[in-house]
Amino acid sequence: MPDSIQPNLLILDEVDSTNTYAREHFDDLPDGTLVVARRQTAGRGRRGRSWLSPPGINFTGSILLKRLEDGFHAGCLLGVAALSLLRELAPELPAYLKWPNDIYVENRKLAGLLSESARIENGRVTAVVSGIGINVNLPSDALKAIDQPATSLLAETNREFNLDFFSKKLAERLIRYYIIYLNSAGFVIREWMEANLLVGETLTLTDPLGKEHTGVFRRILEDGGMLFEENGAEFAFSCGDVKIDRKSVDWDQLKIKALRHSYHYKQPKE
Ligand SMILES: O=C(O)CCCC[C@@H]1SC[C@@H]2NC(=O)N[C@@H]21
């Protein structure tokens, strides 16, 4: 019975990477466990990048999902759950999902997500470890050391957040969305699609071979990929790095869209 899943939060003082830890202990930890580290010594980002994790300042954690229909759903679940928690804790923040799986405020990155497969059956990924790093209490001067425009909850709201409380709330929120997913995967996927607010914008996409494409993000495909229009032709990308064209995006409109989306958002039922 899906509803028997309980939030299971494991807070570690120090670990190399919560994704690595969760994958190594995958068989011993219950489905839906959220592994959180107060300090990560070798946090990993997508495309081989490292992830800055100063001790006790930001949220770093990974969830084990053992009952997926498809691997890409892990990113949807974690992305939607994290965004919904941010909307509860900081309703004034115009945060949105940026394809494939980041949380942004305007052109500043607030959170990044890394999903790694943990089980493959008949060519399909059915279990995943999905990790997220959220800049929570990182002060503005430390943000300048990051090699891309970045932000934190503290920098955006001028408020500090208790990290243990944050972890507990995220573990609860994740389980609620996981139960919803197990009953109706389509609901969670739709929420994820709707929170991806850059559809229609001009973007630069770096494909997995490192080639840059500039064009319009047309829509999200059923398999989680993006349909991209470049010079009048349409291409489907299943992954890639997206850069926002600062000059072409109407930031005020994007902010309004993010806040409107946030007002319409309803917390998932208990
Ligand atoms: O934007 C990215 O490149 C993804 C960053 C993912 C970072 C998180 S922090 C918790 C988990 N453990 C890791 O080593 N990486 C992810």
TrEMBL record:
The keyword Ligase applies. SUPFAM superfamilies: Class II aaRS and biotin synthetases. PROSITE patterns: BPL_LPL_CATALYTIC. It comes from Victivallis lenta. Its EC number is 6.3.4.15. This is Biotin--[acetyl-CoA-carboxylase] ligase. Residues 1-182 form the BPL/LPL catalytic domain. GO terms for molecular function: biotin--[biotin carboxyl-carrier protein] ligase activity. InterPro entries: aa-tRNA-synth_II/BPL/LPL, Biotin_CoA_COase_ligase, BPL_LPL_catalytic. Gene3D superfamilies: Bira Bifunctional Protein, Domain 2 (3.30.930.10). It is an enzyme of class 6 (ligase). It comes from the Bacteria. Pfam families: BPL_LplA_LipB. GO terms for cellular component: cytoplasm. Keywords: Ligase. The lineage of its organism: Bacteria, Pseudomonadati, Lentisphaerota, Lentisphaeria, Victivallales.
